[in-house]
Specification:
Elements (H helix, E strand, L loop, with lengths): L1 H10 L6 E2 L22 E3 L4 E3 L34 E7 L25 E2 L2 E2 L12 E3 L2 E3 L4 E4 L2 E4 L2 H4 L11 H14 L1 E4 L2 E5 L16 E2 H13 L4 H14 L18 E9 L2 E12 L12 H17 L3 H4 L1 H15 L29 H17 L7 H21 L1 E3 H8 L23 H6 L5 E8 L2 E7 H10 L4 H13 L1 H4 L8 E2 L4 H8 L20 H10 L3 H12 L11 E2 L5 E2 L8 H15 L13 H12 L12 E8 L2 E8 L2
Antiparallel strand pairs: 1-4, 2-3, 4-15, 5-6, 7-8, 8-9, 9-10, 11-12, 13-14, 14-15, 16-17, 17-18, 18-19, 20-21, 22-23
Helix pairs in contact: 3-19, 4-6, 4-19, 6-9, 8-9, 8-10, 9-10, 9-13, 10-20, 13-14, 13-17, 17-18, 17-19, 18-19
Length: 678
């Protein structure tokens, strides 16, 4: 036993380091004990061979095989790290490890870091250790011989091959087995960097030979995974994700000799193991981000930074750890994102102007301009940032600009994006070519734009926010994520939020059918599809982004329903999904009008389909947990919005007041807003 321990300690003698120009970087408190790390060890034995790239060797005693997760404080502890530092992990390879073989009757005690993650004291041991018939206790649970973590009376199977789909005596899929399978798949998707969990890959589809970038960690894709881990009390992986992606924010980004503005978050990143310079026997792990320069279409991700801010607030709300958002580098990261979004431009509207494909719909689908999804995330991120920004002299101007934008954005969306039967009839009767300050048809929308499908489709009760608004153009398609997140963030009023859910119920057969939820409705078809998508073979009608059905949207639907105290809608949608999602192997999306087919190019075992389902189930079980995602209207903003409504020429036609003034107080800052009425 002593020989074995000494051999292990020799292996664990070197650890992860930061390569940085900062002379103080070496003094960081890493919270990493040397006995908890293996630096890229390659073990060759008669029956077993495993390669370790900066994995964590979480062992205590070979007879008991207790596994302990890395430190309680994630990668950086409570220290502040310069956001300009380049993270990499120096690794060394060892061909043999004296005293540790698979012939000692104990199995192989090396841990693949990509398979180690705690769940309330229990480790996911799938494909990590070979147990034979050994039984062992792990934390509060007991690890049985079949590889299941046993917590009290319940047992969570962790053998991916043995899990499959559980069926009861009547040959029906059981809900518990679906959840167990989902957790197992989510744990198996975890990516590790320098021994710590850092995110989840987009998909782990063994049937696909063309990986593309589905083996990377996407910012937007990780959000439901992060929320699922937070709801289970697993905070380290979310903390590590937040801090590491923050480091990537400041990387120099160029494409064709052009660099985008500072503050841009990557769409995704990949952990790569590369040879160490000057030493062929050693390797290091590096994070390789993609800011859009390698993406299909070369589109920068506008939503990444917005989702990052939303997740940061959720982490603080759920964990109670506000030290992360209070760090200087995190505060700087928030400000960089805000300055990028609030920078002056040529646009006359408070909405963000973006290119096609800059969000979840990341291919050409005619959403360039001011898509609702971006505006809803923008509004939510502004509210979250306003809550988290530390009050200091350097933030006063930014907070003032942020508050002004919130008021203007909420007014703009609620007034001009909203559509219901009454508003549709108003548009149908619009006069055009109005040149005046108090024009009713401000954007010169032609009544002929009202499509026949919309006249038939719009219900008597209910309404929604349209997909896009530009001069002489209204995109009347229903976009699920934008509408749902408008409910969650409070961008939609209480009445509008209920009307959105009313519409989903009224149009259930169109939006949910056999699998929730349509990403948009209806599909672009015929010549319209050819012109707008460029005849995109992946976005054919009723497929992928062109009105395909995406199971991951279950979690946004659930949060929206919980906020409006209508959880029965989400429960009904989850019940629909449970009938087949596990049997279909957790596809990325579904095709056809009723979502009857698995998408023709859909990846199986798509991580955010898995995580979206789990988050929906967890939130329905504990609706109060949704508070970490929900933002309520600030009374100050409500007051400001009311003043704007009373000054709106559409409601006060012909008013002659020269101006109206109102004041919004925010902390020590008094914001004076003046609106001129023609």
């Amino acid at each position: 036993m002593m020989g074995t321990s000494e051999a292990a300690l020799q292996i664990l003698s070197s650890g992860c380091r930061i390569l940085s120009s900062d002379p103080y970087a070496s003094n960081l408190d890493w919270k990493f004990a040397s006995k908890f790390h293996i630096n890229c060890v390659k073990k060759r034995a008669l029956r077993h061979k495993q390669l370790f790239n900066c994995s964590s060797f979480l062992q205590n005693q070979i007879g008991i095989q207790r596994l302990k997760m890395i430190g309680d404080y994630g990668l950086f502890g409570n220290t502040s790290v310069d956001s300009l530092q380049l993270l990499s992990c120096k690794c060394q390879q060892s061909e043999t490890v004296g005293g540790l073989t698979s012939e000692d009757g104990k199995g192989t005690w090396f841990v693949d870091s990509a398979r180690v993650l705690h769940f309330n004291g229990a480790v996911n041991p799938t494909n990590v250790l070979e147990f034979g018939n050994v039984q062992q206790k792990q934390g509060n649970g007991e690890l049985t011989s079949n590889g299941a973590v046993k917590q009290g009376k319940e047992s969570l199977p962790t053998d991916g091959g043995a899990l499959g789909i559980g069926r009861d005596a009547s040959n029906k899929v059981t809900v518990d087995s679906i959840e167990d399978e989902a957790w197992n798949l989510l744990l198996n998707s975890v990516v590790y960097y320098c021994g710590s969990p850092i995110g989840t890959i987009a998909a782990n589809d063994p049937t696909s030979s063309n990986v593309l970038n589905y083996d990377q960690v996407f910012i937007r894709d990780f959000i439901p995974s992060g929320i699922a881990f937070l709801l289970k009390g697993e905070y380290d992986i979310v903390r590590n994700f937040i801090l590491h992606t923050l480091q990537l924010q400041s990387w120099e980004k160029t494409m064709d000799c052009h660099s985008p503005g500072q503050g841009l978050m990557p769409a995704s990143f990949k952990v790569r193991t590369v040879p160490l310079d000057g030493d062929d026997s050693s390797t290091e792990e590096v994070l390789d981000p993609d800011f859009g320069e390698a993406a299909i279409g070369r589109v920068a991700p506008v939503d990444s930074g917005l989702w990052w801010i939303i997740l940061l607030r959720a982490y603080g709300k759920c964990s109670g750890d506000l030290s992360v958002q209070e760090r200087i580098d995190v505060q700087t990261g928030i400000k960089m994102i805000l300055r990028l979004c609030l920078s002056d431009g040529f646009d006359m509207f408070p909405t963000l102007l973006v290119t096609d494909g800059s969000c979840m719909i990341d291919r050409r689908m005619g959403i360039h301009g001011h898509p609702l999804e971006i505006q809803a995330l923008f509004y939510s991120a502004l509210l979250c940032a306003r809550e988290m920004l530390a009050p200091e002299d350097g933030s006063a101007d930014l907070i003032r600009a942020l508050t002004n934008r919130l008021v203007a954005l909420s007014f703009h969306i609620r007034e001009y994006y909203w559509i219901d039967l009454r508003k549709l009839n108003e548009i149908y009767r619009y006069k055009t070519e109005e040149y005046s300050y108090d024009a009713v048809n401000k954007f010169n929308i032609y009544p002929d734009q009202v499509s026949p499908w919309l006249v038939k489709w719009i219900p008597n009760q209910g309404g929604y926010l349209i997909g896009n608004l530009q001069p002489a153009h209204m995109d009347f398609r229903f976009f699920s994520l934008g509408n749902l997140w408008s409910v969650v963030s409070g961008l939609a009023t209480t009445e509008q939020s209920h009307a959105i859910l009313d519409l989903i119920e009224a149009k259930w057969i169109d939006l949910v059918a056999d699998m929730p939820l349509k990403i948009c409705y209806p599909a672009l078809e015929g010549q319209e599809w050819q012109i707008i998508t460029g005849s995109d073979p992946k976005n054919t009608p009723w497929s992928y982004h062109n009105a395909g059905s995406w199971p991951t949207l279950l979690w946004q639907l659930t949060v929206a329903c919980i906020k409006m105290n209508r959880p029965e809608i989400a429960a009904r949608a989850i019940e629909v999904a449970e009938r087949r999602i596990s049997w279909d192997k957790w596809p990325e999306y579904y095709d056809t009008k009723r979502a009857r087919f698995i998408g023709k190019q859909a990846r199986l075992f798509q991580t955010w389909s898995i995580a979206g389902y789990l988050v929906a189930k967890l939130l329905l079980a504990d609706p109060s947990a949704a508070k970490m995602l929900i933002t309520e209207e600030d009374p100050e903003l409500v007051n400001a919005f009311s003043c704007m409504i009373s000054a709106n020429p559409r409601r006060q036609r012909g008013r002659k007041n020269s101006k109206q003034t109102y004041i919004v107080d925010h902390g020590d800052c008094s914001l004076l807003h003046t609106f001129y009425i023609g």
